[in-house]
Amino acid sequence: MAKKPSKANKKQQQSGGTPATVALTAAGVTYTVHAYEHDPAHPSYGEEAAEAMGVSPERVFKTLVADVDGALTVAVVPVAGQLDLKALAAAVGGKRAAMADPALAERTTGYVRGGISPLGQRKRLATVLDASAPDHATICVSAGRRGLEVELSPDDLAKLTDAVLAPIGRA
């Protein structure tokens, strides 16, 4: 027997949005959607997004899921750099961090790798936003699928995800 769609899923289906854009709309946040043709052969989802949108890689942030002491944690860092796992662990009071199993990250967030958004996740996870985000008026993050980004203020992203702001990115 098929499950009856929730109100949020109905709204998403009707609007053609993703859980991330539905969450942004429901929160009344100002945002811009940027769509581009995803190239599966491109070596980096984030760099591809920056190139396709003509946006500096310092303003495009990737969403990574890590395991910190047994708890899945979301890290949002510029695509121009890498995630510092030790800094991520420290930011949430943990001792050890490692990248999460991709299949577990997909199941937990409800998104596919390369399209994981920090917004509208199936299960809300602790989130850490790199301290460089407030250096920009707006930043871009995945809107919930490959080839789709949302641009919003870092303050709005931090508020909607209850993110901790910490220096978790490195060049």
Summarize the structure in words.
This protein has 171 residues and is α+β, with helices and mostly antiparallel strands. The chain is built from six helices and ten strands; from the N terminus they run ααβαβββαβαβββαββ. The chain has a five-stranded mixed β-sheet. It has a three-stranded antiparallel β-sheet with strand order 1-8-7. Strands 4-10 form a two-stranded antiparallel ribbon. The N terminus is likely disordered.
Observed structural traits:
single chain, 171 residues, alpha+beta, 3-stranded antiparallel beta sheet, 6 helices, globular
Write the layout of secondary structure elements.
Elements: H1 7-15, H2 19-27, E1 32-35, H3 45-53, E2 61-68, E3 71-78, E4 82-83, H4 85-91, E5 97-99, H5 102-109, E6 126-130, E7 139-145, E8 148-152, H6 154-161, E9 164-166, E10 169-170
Parallel strand pairs: 3-6, 6-9
Antiparallel strand pairs: 1-8, 2-3, 2-5, 4-10, 7-8
DSSP, total strands: 10
Helical amount: 25-40%
Q: What is the tally of helical segments?
A: 6
Sheet with most strands: strand arrangement: 5-2-3-6-9
Q: Summary?
A:
The protein is of the alpha+beta class and 171 residues long. Helix content is 29%, strand content 27%. The strands form three sheets. It has a five-stranded mixed beta sheet. It has a three-stranded antiparallel beta sheet with strand order 1-8-7.
